Amino acid sequence: MLPCFSWTLVMWTVQMLSTHTVVSLPPPVNVSIQSFNLEHKLTWLPGNATPTSTRFRVQSHRGSGLWLDVPGCVSLGESCDLSCDLTLFLEDAYDPYVMRVQAFSPALNATSPWTPSQTFHPIADTVLGPPVLQVSGCGACLQLHISPPTTRGQQQMINFLYHTLRVNLTRTRDRAQFSLSVQSGESMIGYLEPEAEYCVTVVVVTTSNLNIVPSHPHCVYTSPTSVNTVLVMVCVLTALSLMVALFFCAALLYSGLLLPHRKPLPKTLSSVSSLAGSPPWMSAQVHDPVHLITDQPEHTHTLITYQPEHTHTLISDQPEHTHTLISDHLATEEATHTASPHTPEAARSHTHRDMQGICEMQEEYGHLI
């Protein structure tokens, strides 16, 4: 019985030594999950004195389920980056996950204990980075275009988290600050100082996450107040209309269609008309037409006698009976003037008759003057 017991003791010792050899590798350290905009990455470091041929495997535990190997994170060699991409593996953003890493060496037939990570909640533990921001001036306002960042993870979840944002404005001139809540997309901030510089930052507003990074300041100037183009166009069109109207009126006046031109009177009628319309200070000089004509018989003879052709020209545009009447009258007066002697009495009588005839002509054809 004793030799049998001794043999059993030896076999148990060998088994214990063999088991101790299997777990001789040092465990990984600093196992952690880094996440940014729902893009997750598991990282770790080898334990102290880990052989160079050591490899690593990763398993995941979700809620109360079993430990499962993570695809793509098994048999990671020493030449590989000591990390594992979990972006597509962590499907539910609200479930808690625990990851663990183990070192193993096929050459040494050795493994290490598992090193777990902290419990990871994707929606709460990920870092929400700054949204995409574009700012431009629009008079006394700022035009904002805000959009969620793109991610390889759950883009719909990111769009939901970036729906409500807070905009912080700082005026560079006096460091005056104020903030307001906006939604992603196009938005405008009005009632600002024209031609002033403002710095804008945007940050996500959510109760599901506290790891939020605001955007970098975007400093722009508000542009000068925009000109009312409609009012300018109305003024220009009004000015053009007035210029066209003035040009049209000037053309009508020049052509005589608006106000007919007055034709000049013949010399005979214009001379008589000028005498009849003389100012009062000349009435004393022309009070006695006979005396005026008697003192200058040659000029009077020239005025009355030698102007028949001008009068004939003026009256020739009238009907034929008027032309015959005026021509006969002028011919008779010329013959009488030629036959009469050049005595003062005869000249005065002749002058009276001439003036009376001319006045009758002026009364009969006054509409031509």
Structure description:
By secondary structure, the protein is an alpha+beta fold. Helices cover 36% and strands 25% of the residues. The protein contains ten helices and 15 strands. The chain has helices at 2-22, 122-125, 155-161, 229-255, 267-276, 289-295, 297-305, 308-315, 320-339, 344-364, and strands at residues 29-36, 39-45, 55-62, 67-76, 83-85, 97-105, 110-111, 115-116, 132-137, 142-147, 164-171, 177-183, 185-189, 197-204, 218-221. Strands 3, 4, 6, 7 and 8 form a five-stranded antiparallel beta sheet that branches. β1 (29-36) and β2 (39-45) form a beta hairpin. α6 (289-295) packs across α10 (344-364) and α8 (308-315) packs antiparallel against α9. The chain is rod-shaped.
**Looking at the structure, what is the overall shape?**
rod-shaped
Spatial gap, N to C terminus: 172 Å
Helix fraction bin: 25-40%
Uncertain segments: 1-21, 281-297, 299-327, 336-342
What gyration radius follows from the Cα positions, in whole Å?
60 Å
| Beta-strand residue percentage | 25-35%
Annotation, overall tally of beta strands: 15
Mean pLDDT: 75
Structural class based on helices, strands and sheet pairing: alpha+beta
User: What are the secondary-structure elements, in order, as H or E?
Assistant: HEEEEEEEEHEEHEEEEEHHHHHHH
| Largest β-sheet summary | 5 strands, antiparallel
Determine the number of helices (DSSP H or I, runs of at least 4 residues): 10
